[in-house]
Amino acid sequence: MGIENDDVRRVRDSTDMVKLISQHLQLRKVGRRWTGLCPFHNEKSPSFSVNAEEGLYYCFGCQKSGDAITFVREIEHLDFVGAVEYLAGKAGVQLRYTSNNEGKDRRRRSQLTDTVEAAVEWYHQRLLKAPDAKGARGYLRSRGFDGDLVRQYRVGWAPDDWDVLAANLKAPRDLFVEAGLGFVNRRGRLQDHFRGRVLFPIFDVNNAAVGFGGRILPPDFGGGEGPKYKNSGESSVYNKSRLLYGLNWSKDEIVREKSSIICEGYTDVIGFAQAGMNRAVATCGTALTEDHVKMLKRFAPKIVLAFDADAAGQNAAERIYEWERKYEIDVAVAALPEGVDPADLAREDPEALGAAVEHAQPFLKFRLARTLAASDMASVEGRARAAQRAVDVVREHPVAMVRDQYLMQIADQCQVSPERLRALLAAPPVNLPEERPTRRRDDGWSDREPPPEAAPARMADNTETQLLRLAVHEPESIPAYIHGALFAYPQNRAIFEALVEAEELHQAIEQASAHVAPLLSQLAVQDEPDGEAETLIGQFLYDAARHELRRLQAAGRNRARQSAEVSVSESGGDTAVQGATDSADSSVEGSGVTPGNPSAAHGTADLAASIRGLQAEIPRVLEAAFKLDAAERLLPWLPVGAG
Ligand SMILES: [Zn+2]
């Protein structure tokens, strides 16, 4: 197997199973066993059980079982040798390899990646500190990269010089060249591969540094000549058709979310992570290959393309359908506005980026929508042409059943009979010239209403989110009467309910929907809110009361409008409820009065009484500077009473 059996045994014996697993889940001692929530399946009560003496685990929920090595293989996505090496490193066990060659290959590989790693660090320090990196720092700032982000992704700067890296790194010449960092020039001198470029270090799936993607600076930042992008040359550690930038960081979330996102640039990957979607990867200077797809399939069966896959044309489409069939994956396309890349969208409108991914369409559906959007659907002739083009698109799909389903949709949209379309499908393609959509930038989905489920990737900092942070860090300071229904935003309500329904935070994250779980993690890494908990709760009740007041006022107007309609009155409908003249706007959700509310079952008089009550009480909370006892007097008026 590559490693001496004795060594494998020693690695097993010297691994503390509880400590190892505790890095991934919370274990509690129950009798002689340890139990916790299984890391391999979603569960509410612990069924993952560990026998520390034997170094074995078993899950009663999903039946996964094994020892320290299997655990590391599963959780770190490593092969057997990789997992043993990982554990040996932690336990300080020196490994001996059975086959000399294999051992040598591995040793050489780690020498190469160590050399690249040293270069990563040197280039990174150069970017942070050197005067000649000023232009690069300015450029990165203009692209939204602050110091923290630069450090997180270890962005570097290759000076505009021949051999600075070679001279400073002092690596053996053969290693330096084989690692793709440089070459020997005609005068026999070692020369750097990169010069005058911002460098994004690329790591393999196990976090070993293997190469760089380099971008030249734009002229305004002092950029020189040369192709815009240049990557490390192919080497035994850098194989572009099998490398995906960002997979080392994103693999866990890809597994958890059961889907990956593929984009085209390093900054796109970083943009997605900044927008809260840490499951994006990018190809490194090449189109998507079958090897990439195979690799991603190991982690999740769904792939979302966050680039204009359609622009690559029919060839791309054929390959994608082929991969879908061969590897049983689903490929969808994120609905990005035309001409906007994910990195820009992540900065300008992270919510829109999240929505684009969430509402990604199956590849064929996306191609069809695009074809139809580019057609004139108002005239008979236009619809006929659209139908022909759409049928040509559908023809590319290899599965008859799928083709037929889409034909029905086209028939519907183009007002053509399905039989007619089936006949078209059977005939050879006509290949009408494609009408490219001439959409304005804001003519896509961005000017539509945001979809109801679209979550902001990054939560705003307001009273509600501060209260959520308090609930995460100091659950005991949240009074029992604080209830999900008091939150104005459905998303915050869902987060709060996930928190109170779980025994502890990790469980809440486990149990929460895919939508809420990352937001909980986000709250968990933030600090507790500043200031007094009681003041914050007072402020929260105050906001909830104002929200409730607006809701009641809207309900009152609604009711007045209805009765005005019934009595065929020409009243504007805004006067029936006394005091209901506050500028309630359309942001108030649900204009009807809902059950559970004091006014729900009662008449207009009670509604008006509630409004008056709130109107009287709310200013007192403000005067009392959100003191809790003042705020608690609002409770009888709120959707959830003092109980
Ligand atoms: Zn399990």
Main traits of this protein?
643 residues; alpha+beta; DNA Primase, Chain A; DNA primase DNAg catalytic core, N-terminal domain; Dna Topoisomerase Vi A Subunit, Chain: A, domain 2; 6 domains; six-stranded mixed sheet; 26 helices; 17 strands; 47% helix; 10% strand; binds zinc ion
Structural description of this entry:
This protein has 643 residues and is of the alpha+beta class. It folds into six domains: 5-91, DNA Primase, Chain A (Alpha-Beta Complex); 105-231, DNA primase DNAg catalytic core, N-terminal domain (Alpha-Beta Complex), CATH 3.90.980; 244-364, Dna Topoisomerase Vi A Subunit, Chain: A, domain 2 (3-Layer(aba) Sandwich); 375-426; 463-530, no CATH class; 534-637. 47% of the residues lie in helices and 10% in strands. Strands 12-14-13-15-16-17 form a six-stranded mixed beta sheet, sandwiched between helices. β1 (28-30) and β2 form a beta hairpin. α16 packs antiparallel against α17 and α22 (505-511) packs antiparallel against α23 (517-525). It is globular, with a radius of gyration of 30 Å. The relative contact order is 0.05. Mean pLDDT is 82; it is low at 434-457 and 569-601. Bound molecules: zinc ion. Zinc ion (ZN) binds at residues 38, 40-41, 48, 59, 61-62, 64.
Distance between the termini: 65 Å
**Oligomeric grouping of the chains:** single chain
Specify the CATH class of the largest domain.
Alpha Beta
Any ligands, ions or cofactors bound here, and which? zinc ion
| Radius of gyration over C-alpha positions, nearest whole angstrom | 30 Å
- Overall number of strands: 17
**Secondary structure: helix percent:** 40-55%
The proportion of strand residues reads: 5-15%
Largest sheet: 6 strands, mixed
**CATH structural fold name of the largest domain:** DNA primase DNAg catalytic core, N-terminal domain
Structural class comes to: alpha+beta
Q: Could you tell me the mean pLDDT?
A: 82
The CATH architecture of the largest domain comes to Alpha-Beta Complex
Give the strand order of the largest sheet, numbering strands 1, 2, ... along the chain: 12-14-13-15-16-17
Could you state the CATH homologous superfamily of the largest domain? DNA primase, catalytic core, N-terminal domain
Low-confidence stretches: 434-457, 569-601
Structural domain count:
6
Number of helices: 26
Coarse morphology:
globular
